[in-house]
Design goal:
The protein is an all-alpha fold. The protein has helices at residues 5-21, 55-74. It starts with a helix and ends in a 14-residue tail after the last helix.
């Protein structure tokens, strides 16, 4: 008896086409828990502001830091090369 691959191939092709023709089953939406941020340990917390610091002092300090930050950000970088080109 001789092996005949044609009926087996036809059966395989038919089953593959039938499987590809059906729409896939919908997946349930994934449930993602929100990230939990643990509280800072006591050693990592900033101490309370001492009573010797006046609010105006803190405001002035904040203004100076902000002005310095603006100056640093707006400072232009030099456009000239580090060394002058040499002529041959």
């Amino acid at each position: 008896m001789r092996f005949r691959p044609l009926p087996l191939t036809a059966l395989l092709l038919t089953s593959l086409l039938a499987a590809c023709g059906t729409p896939p089953a919908p997946l349930p939406p994934a449930v993602v828990q929100p990230a939990r941020v643990p509280p800072l340990p006591q050693a990592a917390r900033q101490p309370p502001i001492p009573p010797i610091c006046l609010p105006t002092c803190l405001e002035n300090w904040s203004k100076r830091v902000e002005n310095l930050r603006r100056k640093l950000e707006s400072a232009e970088t030099p456009h000239s090369p580090a060394s002058a080109p040499t002529m041959p």
